[in-house]
């Protein structure tokens, strides 16, 4: 189980460090197949934190703090609601909901994202942050709403990725602290955390190298196809 945990973490971190998102989608689509959904959610929050803070530090000079502030404040608030909802729902129900969310997001990104052009504003930032925070607390999949927002309001690859990863850094840390304070994190998870971190570290380094070589469009197409497959699997399983 530890090897499989590390391999999934490698795939997720490779995709995210290459395209800006995808770690949670991949991990939360596969990990619940061989570990409890709640364990997978907490594990993803821990491992993702180290990955996104590393990327954010690497791209620190490109972070747009003014753009980041409204969504991260709202996401921090709605994350608590998402975590509380997570712990109150049945695992089977969570899997079905997440499968539906992945399919809807995949359809949006493939067919509609290029037609939607948001403007950078406090209101749009707050709305995107609210949706992202709730989904992040519930599934740890808060990335797609922020990806849609930051892609629409930035025109620079480094600014997009740096600001997005700093958003994930702050939001993931708040979600993890909520789990800690509510007593959801246990010492029995330490071996799994170690395996996930090992895979995440290797995938992040490899993905950042690819980030400089390929366009994001190619990576995104892979992520969209994966979202469809993962969403369909979760709905049918």
Describe the structure.
The protein is an all-alpha fold and 237 residues long. The chain has 10 helices and no strands. It has helices at 2-19, 23-30, 37-58, 65-88, 91-112, 122-139, 143-153, 157-181, 190-211, 216-236. Helix 7 packs antiparallel against helix 8.
Taken as a percent bin, the fraction of beta residues is: under 5%
Mean pLDDT: 81
Helix content: over 70%
Structural class: mainly alpha
Structure annotation, total helices: 10
Radius of gyration: 16 Å
Q: Which residues form runs of ≥5 with pLDDT under 50?
A: none
Q: Based on Cα principal axes, name the global outline.
A: globular
Q: What distance separates the N and C termini?
A: 20 Å
Tell me about the largest β-sheet: none
Structure summary, number of beta strands: 0
- H-E order: HHHHHHHHHH
Task: Give structural attributes.
237 residues; mainly alpha; 10 helices; 81% helix; 0% strand; globular
What's this model, at a glance?
This protein is an all-alpha fold. The protein has helices at 2-19, 23-30, 37-58, 65-88, 91-112, 122-139, 143-153, 157-181, 190-211, 216-236.
